[in-house]
DNA sequence: CATCGATGTTTAA
DNA sequence: TAAACCTCGATGC
């Protein structure tokens, strides 16, 4: 699930469902006990995503979550909660249940299943967090330090309603590329170059832009790099809207152009799609279409 | 029931 | 470059 689109979606969902009211926080699994105690009973004011990080602000404290490779939130609640929590596409799955309420009017949650690192509860429902790489309570200095290490996030365009600020993000991306000698494929996975891109968006954006993944980042013509930023922006926004990554948008059942399609013919030029290991991750590309 | 792999990152060597 | 970490579903025997 988790490239940048997942986290931005999650931030929106948490804002809708939890922001502005005191919540209850626990760690059924037991590995976030101290943090949960600090967050419990506080009012989550605002959730935001920055690349693949989720931050929930509660006054001077910030809850930081990074889902890593397979971390996930699951939401469950009564009909009110489901109606509220269904942000955007219907598949923002909110499980519903036969509701039972405590004397204080709060929904009685189901017992946690499996390893639930953190459970956050509102009156009408709750969210369970499993398998995150990071689940921590930060102060504002620590929060700033995390954010400072991240490159521009295409999904943070449009936040300030300032077209010049958005243009600066793209310029920063071009600047970051110009200063790396690694391949463009490696650069896209470096969260200091651009934040929020993962293995699927890397493969799919380079394919659609016809870029050879092994081109050195600092040799990529800005005339080619700027459309790459725009392509990633479009793809990430589609992912937020739809709740899943689907870069092939021509109706059929195929979801990706090259990701996990190694050994089959490229739908565009017929060349056999390749896969190779690059810095511990699998890289997928079409040697026929991606030549510059 | 055991093993493997996954849309990720950090640390050690 | 490799291993470690975190969890769960798919696959294989």
Relevant terms:
292 residues, 19% strand, Helicase, Ruva Protein, domain 3, DNA-binding, 2 domains, alpha+beta, N-terminal domain of MutM-like DNA repair proteins, 8 helices, single chain
Topology of this protein?
Layout: H1 4-17, E1 24-26, H2 33-39, E2 46-50, E3 53-58, E4 61-66, E5 72-77, H3 79-85, E6 94-96, E7 118-121, E8 125-130, E9 134-139, H4 140-148, H5 163-178, H6 184-188, H7 199-208, H8 222-242, E10 274-278, E11 281-285
Parallel strand pairs: 5-6
Antiparallel strand pairs: 1-7, 2-3, 3-4, 4-9, 5-8, 7-8, 10-11
Helix pairs in contact: 1-8, 5-8, 7-8
The protein binds a DNA duplex (13 and 13 nucleotides) through residues 1-3, 5-6, 31, 52, 66-72, 114-115, 117, 130-134, 189, 191, 198-201, 245, 259, 279-281.
EC number: 4.2.99.18
Keywords: DNA damage, DNA repair, DNA-binding, Endonuclease, Glycosidase, Hydrolase, Lyase, Metal-binding, Multifunctional enzyme, Nuclease, Zinc, Zinc-finger
Pfam family, one: Fapy_DNA_glyco
Note down, in words, how this protein is organized.
This protein is of the alpha+beta class. The chain folds into two domains: 4-148, MutM-like, N-terminal (N-terminal domain of MutM-like DNA repair proteins, Alpha-Beta Barrel); 154-285, Helicase, Ruva Protein, domain 3 (Orthogonal Bundle). The chain contains eight helices and eleven strands. The protein has helices spanning 4-17, 33-39, 79-85, 140-148, 163-178, 184-188, 199-208, 222-242; strands spanning 24-26, 46-50, 53-58, 61-66, 72-77, 94-96, 118-121, 125-130, 134-139, 274-278, 281-285. The strands form three sheets. The protein has a five-stranded mixed beta sheet with strand order 1-7-8-5-6. The chain has a four-stranded antiparallel beta sheet with strand order 2-3-4-9, sandwiched between helices. Strands 10-11 form a two-stranded antiparallel ribbon. Helix 3 links the parallel strand 5 (72-77) and strand 6. Helix 1 packs across helix 8 (222-242) and helix 7 (199-208) crosses helix 8 (222-242). It is globular, with a radius of gyration of 21 Å. The structure holds a DNA duplex (13 and 13 nucleotides).
């Amino acid at each position: 699930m988790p490239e940048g689109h997942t986290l931005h979606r999650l931030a929106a969902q948490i804002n809708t469902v939890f922001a502005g009211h005191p919540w209850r926080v626990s760690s059924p699994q037991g590995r976030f006990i101290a943090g949960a105690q600090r967050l419990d009973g506080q009012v989550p004011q605002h959730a935001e995503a920055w690349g693949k990080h989720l931050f929930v602000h509660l006054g001077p404290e910030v809850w930081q979550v990074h889902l890593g490779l397979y971390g996930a939130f699951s939401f469950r609640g009564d009909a009110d909660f489901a109606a509220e929590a269904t942000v955007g596409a219907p598949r923002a799955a909110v499980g519903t249940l036969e509701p039972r309420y405590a004397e204080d009017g709060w929904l009685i949650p189901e017992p946690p299943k499996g390893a639930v690192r953190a459970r956050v509860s509102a009156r009408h429902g709750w969210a369970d967090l499993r398998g995150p790489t990071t689940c921590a309570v930060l102060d504002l200095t620590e929060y700033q330090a995390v954010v400072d290490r991240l490159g521009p996030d295409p999904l943070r365009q449009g936040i300030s309603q300032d077209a010049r600020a958005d243009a600066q993000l793209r310029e920063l991306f071009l600047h970051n590329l110009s200063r790396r000698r690694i391949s463009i494929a490696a650069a896209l996975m470096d969260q200091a170059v651009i934040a929020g891109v993962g293995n699927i968006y890397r493969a799919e954006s380079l394919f659609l832009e016809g870029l050879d993944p092994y081109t050195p980042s600092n040799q990529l013509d800005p005339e080619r790099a700027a459309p790459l930023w725009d392509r990633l922006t479009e793809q990430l926004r589609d992912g937020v809207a739809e709740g899943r990554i689907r870069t092939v948008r021509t109706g059929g059942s195929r979801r990706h152009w090259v990701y996990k399609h190694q050994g089959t013919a490229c739908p565009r030029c017929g060349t056999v799609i390749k896969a190779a290991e690059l810095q511990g991750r699998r890289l997928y590309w079409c040697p026929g279409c991606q030549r510059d």
